Amino acid sequence: MDYQNRPQRQMHDVSALGLKCEECGAEIKELPFEPTKRDDGTYGRLYCQPCNRNRRKSFGGGDRGGFGGGRRDRY
Ligand SMILES: [Zn+2]
What is the rounded CA–CA span in Å between residue 35 and residue 14? Predict the structure, then answer.
């Protein structure tokens, strides 16, 4: 019963939505959050995982491990 300390964040399967990365145009199959549809029928700007990581990196500032937690460089 270790519900409290699961190391992995939950991923939402969004492959059925046919979402595209705003940055590189790659298909987004899963997101660390549940996308919500807006009034205009889109899901807003979404990014694939590599782009998301790059964006977060370029935000600068401290490395407080938002929802990354640690380094994961291998695929
Ligand atoms: Zn991308």
Answer: 8
Ligand 1 centroid to residue 43 C-alpha, Å: 15
> Does residue 48 register a pLDDT over 90?
yes
CA of 46 to the centre of ligand 1 (A): 9
The token pair at 72 is: 């994961």
Question: What is the per-residue pLDDT across 3-29, written as a single tens digit (0 to 9) for each?
Answer: 666 666 789 999 999 999 999 999 999
Ligand 1 midpoint to CA 60 (Å)? 19
Token output for 4: 């409290």
